[in-house]
């Protein structure tokens, strides 16, 4: 009896140590610093385990208020989400046919932190698939972000909805009098608008003007669609204005993404 109790204690201690180790690991991975080889390895392992465990449930509603114990609710959510995913897969195939100028990689979203829902998402492709930091991620509805960290088998994408001072995108606004450049620098989640700041007050911008990436700085290719101007707000000094841009992308419902690896020469 004593030996059995001692063995049980050892097992419990081992489980606690493993859980603590994973907790510390994921806490350390929450920053934007470059991953070490060891961290990268453990993150790949964790992502693989999570993908296998969550596979039966990936099509279910993630709403924490939904009662998934009811079988009819599960079936209803399953049917709805399967239809959405099939539609997104069709969109990916259509998008690939239009991106003949780029070498692309299609990927599946495998995790998303609810606490940072509009900040990042993780996909199931990484270094083994030729992905690198700063590669651009899009859907058929336009730009969603860029890769900020990569492991062998997964990548973390920083979304354009992230309120991060280091996550600015140079954009081009097609006005009636020509193009003007500005910076996409935030997101208004209450109104579902990405924000463009630093637009000269003298520039004639109007609701409906199309916004795309400008290509300046070399981070994003030129001409990737972002959205159209929905709101225009002047600053209190009358020197510049902020534009609220409506995108076609539902950032709450991203299952598949396409990564632009490099331009085909």
Q: Biggest sheet: strands, sense, closure? A: 6 strands, antiparallel, barrel
Mean pLDDT: 75
> Can you write the helix and strand succession as a string?
HHHEEEEEEEEEEEE
Percent in helix: 25-40%
Q: Can you count the helices? A: 3
CATH superfamily of one domain: Rod shape-determining protein MreC, domain 2
Overall geometric form? elongated
- In what order do the strands lie side by side in the largest sheet? 1-2-5-4-3-12
CATH class of one domain: Mainly Beta
Rg, please?
Answer: 22 Å
β-strand percent reads: 25-35%
CATH topology of one domain: Thrombin, subunit H
Structure description:
This protein is of the alpha+beta class and 265 residues long. The chain has a domain at 169-246: Beta Barrel (Thrombin, subunit H), CATH 2.40.10. The protein is built from three helices and twelve strands. The chain has a six-stranded antiparallel beta barrel with strand order 1-2-5-4-3-12. A six-stranded antiparallel beta barrel has the order 6-7-8-11-10-9. A hairpin with a 4-residue loop joins strand 4 (142-150) and strand 5. The longest helix has 28 residues, at 71-98.
């Amino acid at each position: 009896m004593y030996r059995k109790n001692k063995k049980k204690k050892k097992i419990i201690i081992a489980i606690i140590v493993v859980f603590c180790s994973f907790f510390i690991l994921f806490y350390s991975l929450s920053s934007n610093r470059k991953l070490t080889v060891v961290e990268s390895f453990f993150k790949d392992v964790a992502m693989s385990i999570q993908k296998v465990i969550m596979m039966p449930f990936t099509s279910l509603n993630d709403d924490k208020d939904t009662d998934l114990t009811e079988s009819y609710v599960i079936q209803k959510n399953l049917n709805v989400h399967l239809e959405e995913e099939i539609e997104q897969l069709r969109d990916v195939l259509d998008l690939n046919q239009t991106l003949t100028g780029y070498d692309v990689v299609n990927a599946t979203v495998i995790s998303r932190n609810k606490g940072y829902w509009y900040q990042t998402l993780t996909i199931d492709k990484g270094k083994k698939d030729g992905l690198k930091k700063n590669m651009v991620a899009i859907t058929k509805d336009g730009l969603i972000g860029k890769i900020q960290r990569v492991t062998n088998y997964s990548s973390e994408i920083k979304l354009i909805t992230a309120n991060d001072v280091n996550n600015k995108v140079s954009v081009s606004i097609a006005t009636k009098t020509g193009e003007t450049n500005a910076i996409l620098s935030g997101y208004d989640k209450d109104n579902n608008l990405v924000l463009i700041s630093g637009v000269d007050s003298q520039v004639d911008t109007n609701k409906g003007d199309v916004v795309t990436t400008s290509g300046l700085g070399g981070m994003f290719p030129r001409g990737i669609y972002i959205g159209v101007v929905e709101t225009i707000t002047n600053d209190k000094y009358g020197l510049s204005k902020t534009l609220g841009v409506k995108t076609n992308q539902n950032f709450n419902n991203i299952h598949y993404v396409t990564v632009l690896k490099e331009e085909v020469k």
